[in-house]
Amino acid sequence: MRKKISLFGMLFLSVVLISGCSSSNNTKTTTETQTEAAASETKEKVEEAEESSKETTDTVKSENLEDGVYTVDFNTDNSMFHVNEAYEGKGTLTVENGEMTIHISLPSKNIINLYPGLSEDAQKEGAELLNPTNDTVTYTDGTTEEVNGFDVPVPYLDEEFDLALIGTKGKWYDHKVSVSNPEPAGVESSDDGHSIDLSDGNYTIELTFEGGSGKASITSPTSIRVVDGEALASIEWSSPNYDYMLIDGEKYLPVNSSGNSVFEIPVKSFDKAMNVIGDTVAMSKPHEIEYTITFHSETLKKAE
Question: What is the reported pTM?
């Protein structure tokens, strides 16, 4: 009888132990699962926060610049891919409605397309390649050359982004580039205002006008065209009676034959009053009247 009781007791004890082990294993498995899930959720939140932070940083970088035209450094990861030596590593950045685009002039016509991304994506059907512009550069010795230029979208400043290129040999290459150090066009300050450093093209700018009796005025904003590095402003008077203008002793005649008098004059500097003379025939005899015109660089925009 005692043997039966002992056997039964041992059997009961075994069942209890097995049950306890099973419960312990289940508890352990449940705890590990919960821990792993919590860790995974934490990792996802960290990654989301990092991505959100990056997007916010990029947005801030583009919003830091007001709409306008800037001179910037264009940096690449390879000495074989760079801007034309005439521009000393610089490009022209245009900011419009928060969107940034840099214009770069290259050393030759050997690069025929760019792509804002990776070369493998550039070769996919439907990829939108950047086509070249025909730029004329002037070197320090006075010689000129026609080269390819490109308008490249800039996602953010001071950080590298992908820019692929293809040359005349038909092979794509990946590159990392960056845009940095934006300064309003004409960044070299002096007593004479800001020097002019603009890529060839058409712009608009606001101006202030003073002098004379105060009856005459000039249209603002006005247009500026840059040809071979020289900026020429269109000056439209509020009267048809101006028959010439004088800037630094040089005479400029109207460029129109009807309506208010319109002249095209050189922009000597930004952000400093420029002395001009306008000759009017509105009175009984012609009169040369002194005025000043100030072109405000912070309002300079690439024309649409």
Answer: 0.51
